[in-house]
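A note from the maintainers: we've had questions about how concatenated examples are separated. There is no special marker in the raw files; a new sequence line simply starts the next protein. For clarity in this README we add a label.
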Amino acid sequence: MDFYLKQSPYSDPGAVPADLPTDPGELAVLVRNLLIHREEGGYFGYAMPEERRHEDAEARYVGEILRILRERGRAPLTEHREFGERFAGTCRDFALLLCAFLRATGTPARVRCGFATYFEDGSSPVHHGDHWVTEYRLPDGSWRLADAQIADGAHDVSFDPLDVPRDQFLVAGAGWLACRGGDADPGTFGVGLPENDLRGLWFVRANVVRDLAALGGVEVLPWDVWGLAAKDEPEVTGDDLALLDAAAAVEAASVVSSEEVRRLSADPRLAVPDEIISHTTYLGVRKVRLPERLRG
């Protein structure tokens, strides 16, 4: 568990407030107070500046998120913030910031990439929406899923945001195995925004690769691809599928094996390389070269 107490280069917050709470629930509410999802402006009646909607979520590191927050408001991070003083990110940023605060206050935590059912209203063919949450360890050794994005009660869910049911959030590997086994329709997995309808088994495959990277301490952006995440569907071989099945089984296991995560992450088809492709939502497709310390 020492690995999940240690900050990754992505989650490292640098100096944290001395009065940061240690209770996971309080930390989740604190994160919710610091961030607004870049697609939530209309939901909260907030006119979000377009440049923030386009640019904030490109921040890869918690240190950068905190720098932006400090520039937007002089009040301590633990005090209430109006929407205009918040960081306009994505679900990955909620998950990563909560993970950083949990690690900083002594709770082992990791970021998980997968699919949520509780944001879908039935109007889209996507019933399993692309989503990221935090997984944290309880004193008894068990792990729970926490979603800081819904921690303030503004979203109508029937469960505790600090104990998200695993049939309401499927880690990517669980989604992959369900699709491969014929228990789920791959066409219901992805992003179902009217202007950005991205779904299918290829999308699940990319999230399997991203979730494995996150389990290894490489918490990339939701639109970063490499290796098996970047392959076109006709190029995926039987050997590739077998490797993805193995990675998915490790991700979906009730007890995640860190040894298996390391072994699988060493495969060139899954390992995070020095250069990745980032399919940014608003800023176009670009190549990004990652420093060695950011590749796990």
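[label: protein 2]
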Amino acid sequence: MARDWWGSAGPVARIEVVYDPFSDALGIIRPRVTSRGFTAGGRWAVRFTPRQQTLSVHVAVRGHCGVLVGDRDPICLDEGDVLLCHGTAPWILASDRAVPPADADDLFALDPAPIVQLGGSEVAGIAGHIQMDVDPILASLGHVTHIRAADPAAAALRYLLGRVLRELGSPAPGSAFAGEKYAQIILVEVLRVALEARDAHPAVGWLRVFADAELRPALVLMHEQPGYPWRLADLAQAVSMSRSAFATRFRVLSGMPPLTYLHHFRIRLAEVALRETDATVATLAARFGYSSESSFSHAFTRTAGVSPRHYRSLHRAAVHGPGHAVGH
């Protein structure tokens, strides 16, 4: 008879942990978040410029305003609503579309305060930016997503961005760590919204393959054992499909063949290892299923644009400054 946590005799419940490849994939994205609050009143307009590999999140805390994105129909952002934006076209938040918009970056640069005043206080909002290292997530999201205040996800995002604003505005012990974790949870909430929106799935994309229950067993195998020399036949057998049917379905949903997906996943894992550990290039080559250090270096360079050693040097120089000792 085993003992429970309090020391008394009793049976021990067996808890089955279900592997979640979606969580595994999110672990390599490294989202970082910045957040600024603002108040506005009267006639005003502010233009936000898209940033590379960045998802922008706007929350209407009080009042309402209009949103203009390219040639789309205007969106009314009501109190409690959340707006997600990314892409190449700038967007404008405004009380009056006839007002020439001020540039948000310039406004926030001029005033370092957590809450920037743009006039009155009829409208209050939060502008958050989530930057990430991996592009496929943004490619899977619509350029503009409007989440109504009544949606439970809107309440969660309002709370999380408010916490980020508080951490950034009044730094306390652990604020940097907390900000990183809030960014991860914000991203999870955003992706859940995209997964649950029945009419918002893109034709192809990273998110679609994770939403497909039939392909899940193959994803689990690739994520649990990325260094194993998986063949197309192995993965097809795991989902009880023919090789051609499996390859076609995977490519239609994800936009790439299964083994190409596996290659990209291995390289992303290698990037994390190069940033966060001192593992040698030879060690990583063996860990991720490459026959030699040179074949791994070639594959990494082809995908990441730089060699593994150069990637590590660039990252450590950015974090610690030039001249930091770099291991090989």
